């Protein structure tokens, strides 16, 4: 935006209303949307041209717009006072009204005039009925004092005839009024239709918000606002080709918005930034230690509760992530700009968009955990070489074009390892049998404190193909120096402390069709006399 001098800004902000003509009314529909996992920034644009400061009434903002998030800018423009109007729009006779709105308003005015004229006619007819009833009432209340019997008889006959005629006129007038009112029904329907059509296209300032902004210069006025009633989430199809070992992630995003307006033909950008999330790191509290005599359990619990209240724990903010081709790095956030305009209506539909696929070279093998499972499971591991962070989300699993299940894809940063299970391999059967188990010195206090166990593990391949297998089992581990644990395995494991988990052992081998791989594992545990193994 062009810099504004202090004097010019003061003139723009403080110029009296008399210096301005009526505000120029212009609608500003969304032209671009940056969508975050939670929330969206909506950009509107309109062309303005004013050699002197002019007030523009910018309509089209949804009801409940937040002034704090509004940003108004424009290259080559000097922008003065900005007012967000939630209700009644300012009066003005010089407003520039779109032709469609003007035509709709004219239709409403014509329908209102036609209906008013018809209702005036009905009212006139009903006035005649009221006059007739008044004549009848007057005649009925006529004075008869001092009249001779003959004159009284003549008066009674005249009153009776007059009342009858007046009542007949009133009844006829009421009937005519009813017919005239029924005849106005098309006029009422036309007025209702005209009002409905006007409400559909009239400036949203009446049903939403508007922006009154003072502008000088020529160029594009951009209005940015934020709404938290929108967001996007990823989804995947994870496909394994067993022949090539390729792992393909077909990526999708589900977009939703309930902002109070339709987004039609907007330029859509997905961003990993999280403006609605916490912006500062957690606060670390100091830890104070002390010693003293043993205290009752209740007192210790009370002290811990007090400490927890005084030093609340705070959850860490989630890390930003993104999927997509054409990804741009913006600081710590990534963004994806879609080609072509996107339509998304308010609150009535969810939009699913397909992004580019990610192809990774995967290691495909059978993972066996006989301690818990009776079959091995197909597992794929691959390094994320896409250069992007893959966002956590639901994934459908496919093997050689056939769907085998569903899972949740974890967040995987660029360069990290991705691990996905692709279902059970029913032909790879697992057994784990304890062949021998003995413990010396049974009882509360024992003289001989030793326990031994011998286990036989088998992986039987009943399929028609050879499988590379990763077998995982465990032996106990100790953190006490006097608790001695040793084991012997045939064949020896390829790895101890698998994934930094103490006591986990891993064997890797191939099992041919019809073959059985056997692992023997013997564990011995010794502990001090007079103690119990827990």
| Gyration radius, rounded | 42 Å
Distance between the termini: 73 Å
Q: Look at the structure and give the mean pLDDT.
A: 79
Question: Which bin fits the share of residues in helices?
Answer: 10-25%
Question: How many beta-strand elements?
Answer: 24
Unreliable stretches = 1-20, 92-96, 300-332, 441-447
Q: Give the percentage of residues in beta strands.
A: 35-45%
What's the layout of helices and strands?
Blueprint: H1 6-14, E1 24-27, E2 30-35, E3 40-61, E4 71-73, E5 77-85, H2 99-140, H3 149-183, H4 185-201, E6 209-227, E7 230-241, E8 246-257, E9 263-271, H5 297-310, E10 327-330, E11 333-337, E12 342-344, E13 351-354, E14 358-368, E15 375-383, E16 393-399, E17 402-409, E18 417-439, E19 450-461, E20 467-474, E21 484-490, E22 495-496, E23 504-511, E24 516-526
Parallel strand pairs: 1-3, 2-9, 7-16, 14-20
Antiparallel strand pairs: 2-3, 3-6, 4-6, 5-6, 7-8, 8-13, 8-14, 9-11, 9-12, 10-11, 14-15, 15-18, 16-17, 18-19, 19-24, 20-23, 21-24, 22-23
Helix pairs in contact: 2-3, 2-4
Give a brief outline of the structure.
With 534 residues, the protein is of the alpha+beta class.
Relevant terms:
534 residues; alpha+beta; 24 strands; 22% helix; elongated
Q: Mind explaining what this structure looks like?
A:
It is a single chain. Helices cover 22% and strands 41% of the residues. The strands form two sheets. Strands 7, 8, 13, 14, 15, 16, 17, 18, 19, 20, 21, 22, 23 and 24 form a 14-stranded mixed sheet that branches. Strands 1, 2, 3, 4, 5, 6, 9, 10, 11 and 12 form a ten-stranded mixed sheet that branches. Among the domains are: 6-89 and 203-227, no CATH class; 101-199; 419-526, Immunoglobulin-like, CATH 2.60.40. By secondary structure, the chain is α+β, with helices and mostly antiparallel strands. Helix 2 packs antiparallel against helix 3 (149-183) and helix 2 (99-140) runs antiparallel to helix 4. The protein has helices at residues 6-14, 99-140, 149-183, 185-201, 297-310; strands at residues 24-27, 30-35, 40-61, 71-73, 77-85, 209-227, 230-241, 246-257, 263-271, 327-330, 333-337, 342-344, 351-354, 358-368, 375-383, 393-399, 402-409, 417-439, 450-461, 467-474, 484-490, 495-496, 504-511, 516-526. The radius of gyration is 42 Å and the shape is elongated. The chain has five helices and 24 strands. InterPro entries: CHP02231, DUF4139, DUF4140.
């Amino acid at each position: 935006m062009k810099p504004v001098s202090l004097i010019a800004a003061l003139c723009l902000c403080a110029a009296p209303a008399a210096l301005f003509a009526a505000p120029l009314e212009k609608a500003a529909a969304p032209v671009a949307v940056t969508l975050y996992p939670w929330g969206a920034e909506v950009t509107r644009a309109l062309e303005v041209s004013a050699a002197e400061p002019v007030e523009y009434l910018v309509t089209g903002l949804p009801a409940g717009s937040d002034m704090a998030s509004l940003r108004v800018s424009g290259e080559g423009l000097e922008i003065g006072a900005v007012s967000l109007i939630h209700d009644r729009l300012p009066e003005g006779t010089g407003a520039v009204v779109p032709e469609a709105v003007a035509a709709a308003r004219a239709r409403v005015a014509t329908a209102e005039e036609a209906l008013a004229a018809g209702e005036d006619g009905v009212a006139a007819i009903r006035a005649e009925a009221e006059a007739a009833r008044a004549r009848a009432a007057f005649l009925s209340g006529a004075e008869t004092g001092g009249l001779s019997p003959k004159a009284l008889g003549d008066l009674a006959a005249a009153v009776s005839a007059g009342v009858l005629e007046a009542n007949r006129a009133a009844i006829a007038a009421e009937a005519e009024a009813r017919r005239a009112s029924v005849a106005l029904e098309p006029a009422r329907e036309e007025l209702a239709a005209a009002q409905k059509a006007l409400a559909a296209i009239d400036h949203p300032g009446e049903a939403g918000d508007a922006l009154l902004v003072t502008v000088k210069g020529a160029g594009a006025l951009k209005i940015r606002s934020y709404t938290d009633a929108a967001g996007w989430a990823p989804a995947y199809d994870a496909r394994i080709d067993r022949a090539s070992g390729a792992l393909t992630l077909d990526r999708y995003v589900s977009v939703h918005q309930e902002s109070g307006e339709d987004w039609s033909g907007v330029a859509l950008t997905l961003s990993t930034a999280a403006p609605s999330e916490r912006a500062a790191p957690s606060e670390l509290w100091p830890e104070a230690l002390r010693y003293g005599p043993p205290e009752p359990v209740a007192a210790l619990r009370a002290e811990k509760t007090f400490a927890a209240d005084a030093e609340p724990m705070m959850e860490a903010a989630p890390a930003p992530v993104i999927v997509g081709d054409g990804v741009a790095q913006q600081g710590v956030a990534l963004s994806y700009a879609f080609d072509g305009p996107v339509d998304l209506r308010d609150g009535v539909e969810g939009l699913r968009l397909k992004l580019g696929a990610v192809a990774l070279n995967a290691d495909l093998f059978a993972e066996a955990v006989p301690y818990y499972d009776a079959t091995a499971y197909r597992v794929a591991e691959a390094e994320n070489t896409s250069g992007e962070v893959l966002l956590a989300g639901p994934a459908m699993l496919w093997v050689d074009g056939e769907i085998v299940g569903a899972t949740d894809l974890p967040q995987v940063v660029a360069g990290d390892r991705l691990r996905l299970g692709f279902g059970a391999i029913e032909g790879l059967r697992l057994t784990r049998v304890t062949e021998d188990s003995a413990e010396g010195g049974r009882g509360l206090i024992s003289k001989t404190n030793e326990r031994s166990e011998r286990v036989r593990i088998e992986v039987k391949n009943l399929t028609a193909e050879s499988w590379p297998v990763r077998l995982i089992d465990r032996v106990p581990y100790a953190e006490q120096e006097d608790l001695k644990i040793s084991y012997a395995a045939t064949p020896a494991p390829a790895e101890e402390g698998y994934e930094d988990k103490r006591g986990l052992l891993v064997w890797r081998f191939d099992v041919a069709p019809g073959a059985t791989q056997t692992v023997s594992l013997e564990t011995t545990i010794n502990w001090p006399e007079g103690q119990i193994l827990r």
